[in-house]
Every structure is written in structure tokens, then in C-alpha cells.
Amino acid sequence: MFDNIGTKIKKLALVTFWVGVVASAFLGLSLLIWSAERGGGSWLVGLIIVAVGCLISWIGCFALYGYGELIEKTAAIYDNTRLSGSASTQGSDKSTKAAFLGELRNSGVLTEEEYKRKLNELFGSNI
Fold it and tell me: Are the C-beta atoms of 57 and 16 separated by less than 8 Å?
């Protein structure tokens, strides 16, 4: 249900836009027809309702569409950061992993015993 929520929000913005356009067109045309039947001069109001309603619907969807775009871009940044972060911290070969473990030991994150245990797990022998 919440997968690709950014895309769904953007689609909701487009649907909201078209509903607003259709509603303002219907209301404006209804006023035009009513004005023609009565012989009044409110036909201009009907045209203004169509134009302004479409414009308001278009502008009103900017924020919702932008929010969906923001969510999509944030998810893409998260995915890219997570993938590149794991590749840079773990490395693909044993020497890179061993160097990373050495950095963790030197910075105090790993104790000497933890460092040796991790190296043993990595290389499969007692060091």
C-alpha cells in the first residue's frame, strides 16, 4: 500500500487537477446555459469561472505534486547512500575489510579482542 508513495502522491495531484478542471468547466458551462436561458448578461461570469477554476486547480496541485517528487527523490537518495555506504565501508575483498576493521580498532570502536576475532572470522584462521 505504501510502496512508491511518491508516485502515488503525484498521480493523486494529477487526478485532483483534472477533477478541478472538469468541475469548474461543468459549473461555468452550467452558468452559461442558465444565463442564455434567462437572457441575462452573466455569461461572462461563467467564462471567468471556467478560466479561474482551471487556473486554481492547476496552481493548487503544485504543492501536492512537488511533495510527491520530494518523496521520490529522497527515497532515491536514501537507496543510493545506503548502497554506496555499504560498499565503501565493507568493501568487496578481504584486504579492504581487514583495513576497515583496523580503522575501527584504531578509532576505539573495536577492542583488540574484537578486532582479532573479526579478523579470524574473515580469514578463517587464528592470527
Answer: yes
> Rounded to two decimals, what is the model's pTM?
0.56
- Tell me how far apart the alpha carbons of residues 65 and 16 are, in angstroms, rounded to a whole number: 10
Amino acid at 34: W
C-alpha dist (Å) from residue 54 to 26, 29, 49, 61, 70 = 11, 13, 8, 11, 25
Candidate from 11-15, 60-64, 108-112 with smallest mean pLDDT:
108-112
Grid coordinates representing 101 are 576493521
Phi and psi torsions of 48, nearest 5°: -65, -40
The Cα–Cα gap between 68 and 5 comes to 7
Whole-angstrom Cα distance, residue 19 to residue 5? 21
Set of cell numbers at residue 57: 486547480
CA atoms within 13 A on the CB side of 59: 6
